[in-house]
Specification:
The chain has 94 residues and is mainly alpha-helical. It has a domain of 64 residues. It is built from three helices and no strands. The protein is elongated, with a radius of gyration of 40 Å. The protein starts with 5 loop residues before the first helix and ends with a helix. 0% of the residues are buried.
């Protein structure tokens, strides 16, 4: 809202420019802070994934795990069985 006093108009414009400049500067600082945080988190996740792949990949190429050891010691037990049919109900035969 323009006023009749030109000094008040100039002061309002200067204060407006200062407020907008400070807002842009703070917004840029917050943006850089968030971008930096995301960059650090991405680096941490990347290093963690690399470390896990290296750790678990070494187990695949190294000594056999417990499951492989168990399959080599499987024993077969032989035996005989007789198949028994279920009992017939006497009332159904009549």
């Amino acid at each position: 809202m323009p006023t009749r006093n030109p000094l008040a108009n100039i002061l309002a414009v200067v204060v407006g420019i200062i407020v907008i400049s400070v807002s842009l500067a703070l917004g840029f600082v917050v943006f850089v802070g968030i971008a930096g945080f995301m960059l650090v988190m991405a680096a941490i996740v990347t290093i963690r994934i690399w470390w896990a792949k290296r750790r678990f990949g070494a187990q695949k190429t190294g000594e056999p795990d417990q499951a492989t050891k168990r399959t080599s010691t499987i024993r077969v037990i032989e035996g005989e069985f007789t198949e028994v049919s279920p009992p017939q109900d006497k009332d159904r035969r009549r």
